[in-house]
Amino acid sequence: MNLLSGSIRRVAIVGGTHGNELTGIYTIEKLNRFPHLLDGYSFECMTLLANPKAIAANRRYIDRDLNRCFGNADLANPALTNYEDILAKEIAAKLGPKDRPQADVIIDLHTSTSNMGLTILLSSRHPFNLRLAAYLSALHPDVRVCCGIQCNQDAPMLRSLSPLGCTIEVGAIAQGILNADLFEKTQMLVRETLNYIDAENQGKPLSIPASLTVYQTLSSVDYPRNSSGQIEAMIHPQLQFQDYQPLQPGDPMFWTFTGESIPYRGESTVFPIFINEAAYYEKGIAMTLTDRIVLPTERA
């Protein structure tokens, strides 16, 4: 199928890319137990539990973050032989390859310890994705839409195996637990995504806003550290859980262990997301800074 035209034939719903994010895992378990929930669409739905060993261990990953293993160079590198690198190649064989994906749309389900609410992380700025995100954001006031620096198919995330689709990221929720409210909202977003795709397939596109607010990634910020690499400050109490809220130059950003405030020293207003994400401590990321932009969603 040419993804730039024609109908969607296959949609992949993925959970457990991170083994301790139970919302996506149990969403897939539910869909596998009650397959009739995926009946009646004009396309095939497939489900995938991406990282079985990490799921069994209730760990984010075994050897390496699976959701950083899908860059083109890594997938093509036979020297990368740890568990997640091999697994990524196997998943790419099922859903990819990127230039001829077998899954026309990928929906990858995640959770965050940050206060991300209901977030749609786009696979690309393809008009289909923008229209889908606009539809979802119009449905629920808590839905926000993000685009990473690598908002394309060379990104290392699983979602990059197809240009169409997204990651659904919900939070705040601790790793390794379930939250009924966020679980149900994830079900809603999956269901409405499938409904939107089905309407597109049948030539009955659903109504969407003419424009979409997108939080475009600018950069990531690490915690203040000493010469030995040890963290010397925490997220400031006024910034904690303030994902998507404007951060102005001079606003408090970090709080030292001696009780001193460290301000944001940028020159323009930004919108931090993934603030104090537990899984990002090892990556040297205290938060991601974004700009808020508006993109058109009109059909060509």
Automatic annotation (TrEMBL):
Domain AstE/AspA barrel-sandwich hybrid, chain residue ranges per copy: 211-291
Cofactor note: Binds 1 zinc ion per subunit.
Catalytic activity: an N-acyl-L-aspartate + H2O = a carboxylate + L-aspartate
Cofactor: Zn(2+)
Transmembrane residue ranges: none
GO-annotated molecular function: aspartoacylase activity; hydrolase activity, acting on ester bonds; zinc ion binding
Active-site positions on this chain: 169 (proton donor/acceptor)
InterPro entries named in the record: AspA/AstE_fam, Aspartoacylase, AstE_AspA_cat, Aste_AspA_hybrid_dom
Transmembrane helix in keyword set: no
Keywords attached to this entry: Hydrolase, Metal-binding, Zinc
Group of enzyme by EC: hydrolase
UniProt domain Succinylglutamate desuccinylase/Aspartoacylase catalytic: residue ranges: 8-197
Any one annotated GO CC term: cytosol
UniProt source species: Chamaesiphon polymorphus CCALA 037
Domain of life: Bacteria
Positions of Zn(2+) binding: 18, 21, 110
HAMAP family named among the record's database cross-references: Aspartoacylase
SUPFAM superfamilies cross-referenced by the UniProt entry: Zn-dependent exopeptidases
The name this protein goes by in its record: Probable aspartoacylase
Binding site for substrate: 60, 67-68, 169, 280
